[in-house]
Amino acid sequence: MSASFFVSKIIQQTQVTNTIFCMTVKCDLPLKPGQFFMVRGWDGFPLLSRPISIYDAGPNTVSFLYEVRGEGTKLLSKLQPGETVELNGPLGNGFEPAKMKGKVAVVTGGIGFAPMVYTVKQLEDCRVDFFCGFREQSYELEKVVPYVENIQVATDSGIEGHKGFITDLIKVKNYDVVLACGPEVMMKKLAKMCTEQQVPCYVSLERHMACGVGACLGCTCKTVKGAKCICKDGPVFLGEELNWDA
Amino acid sequence: MLETSIAAVPLKNPVITASGTFGFGHEFQPYFNLSRLGGISSKGLTLNERYGNEGERIYETKSGLINSIGLQNPGVDFFIHHELPFMKGLGTAVIANLGGGSMEEYLGGIEKLNATDVDIIELNISCPNVKHGGMAFGIQTETAYQVVKEVRRVCRKPLMVKLSPNAENIVQMAVRCEEAGADAISLVNTFKAMAIDIKTKKPVFKNVFAGLSGPAIKPIALRMVYEVAAAVSVDVVGMGGISCWQDAVEFILAGAKAVQVGTANFIRPNICLEIIDGIEAYMINEGIRSLEQIRGVAHTA
Q1: Dihedral, CA atoms, B183, B189, B192, B197, nearest 10 degrees?
Q2: Vertex B262, ends A69 and B135: CA angle to 5°?
Q3: Peptide bond into B188 cis (omega under 30)
Q4: Residues of A in contact with B27 (CB under 8 A)
C-alpha cells in the first residue's frame, strides 16, 4: 500500500461546529483506518502541509474531519467544492481492525474522534463500546451509531453526558482491546490502566510533522523498540511499548 | 546537457537532495524514480547511533522551518550495512554526510566510510543542534582548518566540507577549508535561530537555539554562495531555501556547480523532479548547451 502525491478535487465542505469542518475529496487509493494524509490547500504559505487523519472513505472519496487551529486549517476551511488540494498519502500504519475480535472499547478525546469513525466501521467482528470526550458538546455521533453497541459521552463543559474525563467512564478490564485517539494525557492514562489490566491498548499519536514520510525525524518518539517516527512507524502504537515519560 | 561533476565525481544533473531532508532515499521511493536525481546526501551520520534532541524538534515560521533534530541517526555501521546497498542501487551519486562531536569521532567515521563505495563524503562541521561538536567546528576558521586537515589525512574519498552560515567569516572559512584539502565546499547549513512560546514564555526548543531553513534563508544563502564561489577554486555546491527551479538557476549563476534541495522536499515530495525539469526547460529556452556556460556568470555581469 504505497503513498502517492497528487492533486485532488474537493467534492464537499461542511461546517460541523464553530471550529470543526468536514472536507470530502476525490481519492481512489486503498486506505487503512488510522492512516493520514499530508494535506495542502495553498501554494507557498504556510510552508508545511498539514497531517490530517482519514475520517471516512467512499468508493472514490476520502473525508477529513478537522479542527481549525491555525493558518493552515483556516485556509483549508475556506476552500469550496470544485477547488483542489494537494494530498500526500495515505501515510503511516493505521489500526488493524481485521485482527481484532470480541469486545472493543474505542476512546476518543476532542478531534481524536476523527480517525475512529472509519475505524469502527471496519470492526466488523467486534462488539464496540464508544467512549468520546468533547470540550463543549458532541458532534457527528450519528456516524458511529450504526456500528457500535453503546455510546458514552463526557464533556468538559458538562452540557452533555458526564462532566469530566472520558477515562472516568471506562472499565478497561471489560474489554479485549482498547483503541484510543485524543490528548496525550488521556492516552497515557488509558495506556496505564490497560497495562495494569493486561488489556492491549492501541493509541494514535499526534505531533507536528514536516515531511510525513519518516525523513525529517521531527516527530520521533521513544519506544521499547527504540526511536520511532510517529508519521511512518505510527501514528498507531501499542500503548505499553511507548515511553510515555520521555 | 544537465551533466555536471563535484570533486571529479560525475553527476547526471546538478540537483542533490540535502542531508537530513531525504532520509536515506527509500522514504521518497513511492513518489518518483530516484535515479533521476543528481545525487542524494544521506541523513547526517555519526560514528555511533544517536537519539537526537529531546523536546520540540520542529517549528514552522512564516516562510521557514526551525529544526532541532540533533543528528538522530543509526550510526555509520548501520548505514553501511542497511542503507548504503539500497542507495548504491539507485543509479545516482551517493554522498555520505558525516558529523561528529570530536576529532576521534570524525576520523572513526571516515575510516569506516573509506572502505565503502560511497561516492563523496560530505563533512558536516555545521550542525547547530549538537553541543560540543558539529557547528562548534564550523564557527572559527582555524578550528575548521584543523579538523579538515586531520580528516583529509585519513580520508580516501572525495571530501566535500559543508559550511555553516554562522561562521565568523564564511569566505575565509571556505578558503581555509580548501587549503586544508577539501575537494569541494557545500553551503549553507541552517541559520542559528530561535522561537519563544508566548504562553509558557520560554524558548520553544530545549537547546534554546535551533537551525532555520526554508525560503526565508535563500537570499542570504545565495549571497554567501556568490562570495565563496569567487574566492575558492574547488567546486561549490549551493543550498539554502531552494524551492523551485528558478532558485536553483540563481545558485548556478552565482557560481555553484550543483545545488542541494532540502526543506522543499517536505513540502512536495517530488519537488526535485520539477526542479530538474525546470532547469532543463530553461536551458532549452535560453539556448544554453551546458551548465558551464552559465555557471558563475552573474559575477561578470
Answers
A1: -160
A2: 100
A3: yes
A4: 211, 213-215, 232
Of the partner residues B57, B59, B61, the one whose CB lies closest to the CB of residue A220: B57
**Alpha helix segments (H runs only) across chain B:** 76-78, 84-88, 103-114, 136-139, 141-154, 170-179, 218-231, 245-253, 264-267, 271-286
The CA distance from A139 to A153, in Å, is: 10
Q: Do A213 and B269 touch (CB under 8 A)?
A: yes
Residue carrying C-alpha cell 482491546: A177
Chain B touched by A228 (CB under 8 Å): no
Q: pTM, whole model, 2 decimals?
A: 0.95
Q: Which residues have CB under 8 Å from B115's CB, separation 6+?
A: none
- Cβ contact (<8 Å) for B60 and A208? yes
Sheet holding A150-155, edge to edge: A162-163, A150-155, A126-134, A102-109, A177-181, A201-204, A236-238
Contact between A39 and A130 (Cβ < 8 Å): no
Query: What's the mean per-residue pLDDT of chain A?
Result: 95
Answer for the pair A8, A38: CB distance below 8 angstroms, yes or no: no
pLDDT tens string B173-221: 999 999 999 999 999 999 999 999 999 999 999 999 999 999 999 999 9
Q: Which residues are within 8 A (CB) of B157 and not within 5 positions of it... i.e. 6 or more apart? A: B113, B114, B118, B119, B120, B121
- State the Cα angle at A33 between B268 and B58, rounded to 5°: 40
- Among residues B41, B189, B179, the alpha carbon closest in space to that of B120 is found at B41
Give dist(CA A39, CA A51) in Å, integer.
Answer: 6
Provide the shortest C-alpha distance from residue B267 to chain A (in Å): 6
State yes or no: pLDDT of B132 exceeds 60. Answer: no
Cβ contact (<8 Å) for B54 and A3?
Answer: no
Q: What ipTM was reported for this prediction?
A: 0.93
| H or E segment and range at residue A186 | helix A184-197
Cβ neighbours around B4 below 10 Å, total: 23
Q: Are strands A126-134 and A150-155 parallel, antiparallel or unpaired?
A: parallel
Cβ contact A27:A62 at 8 Å: yes
Going by C-beta distance under 8 Å and a sequence separation of 6 or more, which residues neighbour residue B133?
Answer: B99, B100, B101, B102, B105, B127
Tally of helices (H runs) and strands (E runs) in chain A: 3, 16
Half-sphere exposure for B163 (CA within 13 Å, toward CB): 33
Q: Do the chains contact at A216 and B266, CB–CB below 8 Å? A: yes
Q: Which residues are paired to B235 by β-bridges?
A: B184
Helix pair angle (B271-286, B245-253), 10° resolution: 60
Length of chain B: 301
Q: How close, in Å, is residue A22 to chain B by CA atoms?
A: 23
Residue entry with cell 564557527: B139
Any idea which residue has 469486545 for its cell?
Answer: A103
Exposure string of B87-105, with b = 16+ CB inside 10 Å and e = fewer, is beebebbbbbbbbbbeeeb
Query: What residues of B are in contact with residue A40 (Cβ under 8 Å)?
Result: 267
User: Which is it for strands A36-40 and A84-91: parallel, antiparallel or unpaired?
Assistant: antiparallel
Alpha carbons A11 and A7: distance in angstroms, whole number: 13
| Side chain identity, residue A11 | I
